[in-house]
Amino acid sequence: MRFATRALRTLRPLIGASCPADIDKVVREFAAELDAMHYVLGIVQHTPGGDVLRWLCEDAWRWWEAFRPEFSPLVAAAGWRAGQLRITWRTLDDDQFFPVHDELQRLRARSGLFLVADGLRPGDTLACLGLLFGFADSTGGRHAHAQLADLCHHAASLLLDAYLRLPCQERKPECVPTRLSAREQECLRWASVGKTGGETAQILGVSERTVNFHLGNAFVKLRVNNKQAAVAQAILRGLL
User: Fold this and answer.
1) Backbone dihedral angles phi then psi of residue 17, each to the nearest 5 degrees
2) Domains 2-170 and 178-236 alike in fold
3) Is the separation of the CB atoms in 131 and 36 below 8 Å?
4) CATH code reported for the domain at 178-236
5) Going by CATH, does the domain composed of 2-170 fall within 3.30.450.80?
6) 100, 113, 134, 220: least buried by Cβ within 10 Å?
């Protein structure tokens, strides 16, 4: 239990975290205390229009790309009952699980832990945490898988809560309030009830090209690339 106590101590600065760099430092120190070879923490907003990455910290550029399939089902399960862990372990001792097995070998790791933790509003904003280790099981490391998983899930929840408490200006640009024009709002509002571009044009008394122009502007402002995602983002931001 001593390692767990030390790891939990690294999370104390989250109480006073005032910028993403403060959280990044805590993640780095937490991972180091667990003897993790690599770490990644992603803050994801789970929306009807898709999953939006709000913030990311990692120790090496995109080392986790090949492990994306480990996170997808965990994120998709958002909204499970409170306290239920969503977690995956992968080790070199598993069957030849492609591409994870090859990636573990390439990174000279023997196991990987991937989990998702809900924040203040389960099913809305999530923390995706990934860690790679040089041991495959409890006999090779300092800690048992169950204890480590529980500890990391607790840490991910605290890290996410700390991020959600940051002043808006300290987050990524998408946090800055977005303003849609009246026409952009009208076009999105009709799209939200299933109207096509042509139908919206008839209702508003304009050309379909004009409707598509306004929708295109809205896509840019909301940082999305389709109507479904634009409507979801607009509703989430209180613009519709």
Assistant:
1) -60, 130
2) no
3) yes
4) 1.10.10.10
5) yes
6) 220
Integer Cα distance of 187 and 131 in angstroms: 44
Give the bridge partners for 128, in sequence order.
42, 116
Instruction: Measure Cα distances from 31 to 40, 71, 143 in Å.
Output: 9, 18, 14
Give domain limits for the chain.
2-170, 178-236
pLDDT of the chain along its 240 residues, tens only? 567 788 889 999 998 898 899 999 999 999 999 999 999 999 987 666 667 788 899 998 889 888 888 887 787 766 655 445 678 888 887 666 567 888 888 899 989 999 988 765 555 788 899 999 998 764 444 456 778 888 898 899 889 888 888 876 455 544 445 678 888 888 998 998 889 999 999 998 888 888 988 888 888 777 777 788 788 778 777 787
